[in-house]
Amino acid sequence: MQKLFPHPYLSATLLLTWVLLMNSIGPGAVLMGGFLGVVIPLLTAPYWPEHAAMKHPLRLVAYIGLVLGDVVVSSIQVAAIILFKPVDQIQSAWICVPIDLPSPEAQALLAGTITMTPGTLTADFAADGKSLLIHSLHAPDPDAVCAEIKSRYEARLKRIFT
Q1: pLDDT tens digits, residue range 62-95?
Q2: C-alpha–C-alpha distance, residues 22 and 16, integer Å
């Protein structure tokens, strides 16, 4: 089974993504999604030196729910900043966030989460993987933004991957 599905989470994600893109649960969409879910991980398996050490995959579902909720809230906050705050009162900031995540997959997930949340953007990884450079649209207190990222996202990712 491991030879057919070297990365089962990737296979499931590809199948689900294809079905959602096709907006159909018909046999053709499921068959093609299943085909992609088998072939793409098989073709890319040699380039993955080791598997992601996701110890608690069900916690990932809760994390995704948290991030989706944060995207909605942040969208409203960004819209309010753009529409109602005078330009000279917007306090953009570059913030260096030190991270202590166990794997490159967890680090990439944190960077993607930050980028996906409106108002923030991950601009760079440190070469040693110990910090992220983040741009925030409005950060009157950059230390508070850093603390929120560490407590809200990084702490949860640590629990998922360790």
Answers
A1: 999 999 999 999 999 999 999 999 999 999 999 9
A2: 10
Same domain membership, residue 140 and residue 79: yes
Quick check: 131 and 97 in contact, CB under 8 A?
yes
Question: CB under 8 Å to 42, separation ≥6 — which residues?
Answer: 4, 6
Q: Tell me how far CA of residue 119 lies from CA of 24, 41, 137, in angstroms.
A: 33, 33, 5
The whole-number average pLDDT for the span 36-65 is 83
| Domain extent at residue 36 | 8-47
Give the Cα separation of 131 and 129 in Å (integer).
Answer: 6
How many domains is the chain built from?
A: 2
140 and 114 both lie in a single domain: yes
Q: Is the dihedral of CA 54, 59, 64, 70 positive or negative?
A: negative
Q: Are residues 97 and 63 in the same domain?
A: yes
Looking at the fold, whether 42 and 87 belong to one and the same domain comes out as no
